[in-house]
Design brief:
Number of helices: 2
Number of domains: 2
Number of strands: 30
CATH architecture of the largest domain: Beta Barrel
Strand content: over 45%
CATH topology of the largest domain: Porin
Length: about 350
Amino acid sequence: MWWLEVLGLAERVAQASGDGDSRIDPAAVIEPGVILDDSQGAIVIGPGTKVCTGAVLRGPLVIGSNGLIGNNCMVRGPTLIGDEVRIGFASEIKQAMIADRVMIGPQCFVSDSKIDEGAYLGAQVRTSNQRLDRAAITVRDGEREIATNADKLGCWIGARSALGISATAVGGGVTVYQDWSSTFSTRTAAFVAENEPVFAELGFAQDVTIAVADKTTVTLGGRWARYFGNQDVTFLSAGARRYFRGGSVSYRLTHVNPEGRDAFLAHLVNITIDDASGEGKTQLWLSTGEASLDRSQIDGDFDGQNRAAMLQRTQPLTSNLALVASAGLSSFDRPQGDFTSLNLGLGVLVNTR
């Protein structure tokens, strides 16, 4: 029973730590500003693991090899973390069993929980661990409800599961659109954000759009971005859009070249249907490749194949206000397993003109 493993973590961590003394492997990287507090138990960190500036680790805990503990993370024992685990910026981990090759995005909260091998948690995933009425927690097994006698208990996330909630990058950018003539326009963009896992911290983009025929445009573009860990990626794209009465359809091919890794191609198709009134619209995106939907984030694992579909509806509410709702389904084929995620979005579009 998984909750017994979580509740018995203190003993498991003590066994894994061996003689009870803290040990930091010489091949581990502990950046300046990291706090290692072993006053309540030993801290063991394996070779190749990097603990970034601002992280706080409080024992007892064991962290395996070749992992990453991001900036300003809090990890509290008893906690057992496997090999090749990546934990993003400002996440908090408490009394958790995290298996090998788990990826946890920024600003997550994982407490009193078990996460199996290869699972993926998107940004800001939280595992609630306490009832509002403070009563003991029960676990349902089929039709049975089992008393755990625990006042705090999170959840069990199975192997190769993928959870996506939301993601926020702190930063800013500017985009300048310029119509030079009736047939030639450009888009120039630049952005900067915090140097955190998942998000690009710096980037520039330049697109050129040319009207090559009646109701047909061609766009050529280039983009450079630097991601967490000084991973530079260049994007070169070419695409075309054909306008018709009531909408348009476009295709774009992007060549993605991560520094030090194999380059790959990404394909994106967009279909836009305008309302008869010309105010609202419905859009469909279909994509394949690592750069699905041209997101400004890359998860650090460029191997494998992504496929995604997203449907978005822009519904006017007033002359200056519209509701934007979207639903997307993504699949990720990785060497360590296949994942599927469902993303739902709801927002408001304000026209200030």
